[in-house]
């Protein structure tokens, strides 16, 4: 399958057809992997996301983070810099709005923004991945732009996906940023 669009459609369909029970089991296993991860355990600030379109749901892990006094940040579409993300503090009482994609995000409050260099771990959703660590997103390039030169920042990116999202080979473009690690319910893949 050479077309990135066709690959997105195929893998999105796979994850959308997972049952509620399979989704819940995947979330539970994600907590097991992340709660014992050395970088997560030493982290004070963790960027996550709210599941959409069948993505692996990290909400139970967000609860775990709160219980372990870790500050959780969610992506927000940058209001002035199209195609870019900001990360805002997410707490139980954070006011939320839907962005242009229909995804819930914290209401913009500049006092709650965390610069990328102050995040310890950034967990990113993805559509598909391969055994080389290539990540295929939804096509907007938001996380590729965010993770450009991530090694120069303090942040450590981890891709989160269902097992069914692994494919043989992602057709990589020059703007794609490979991840050092991807975690699925059954496995932890380390690439760097």
From TrEMBL:
Which coenzyme or cofactor does it need?
Mg(2+)
User: What name goes with this protein?
Assistant: 5-formyltetrahydrofolate cyclo-ligase
- SUPFAM superfamilies under this entry? NagB/RpiA/CoA transferase-like
Name the PANTHER family for this protein. 5-FORMYLTETRAHYDROFOLATE CYCLO-LIGASE, ATPASE INHIBITOR/5-FORMYLTETRAHYDROFOLATE CYCLO-LIGASE
Task: Tell me where the signal peptide lies.
Answer: none
In short, the EC number is 6.3.3.2
Annotated Pfam families: 5-FTHF_cyc-lig
**Enzyme class, broadest EC rank:** ligase
Which organism encodes this protein?
Answer: Colwellia maritima
Q: Which reaction does it catalyse?
A: (6S)-5-formyl-5,6,7,8-tetrahydrofolate + ATP = (6R)-5,10-methenyltetrahydrofolate + ADP + phosphate
Establish whether keyword Metal-binding is in the entry: yes
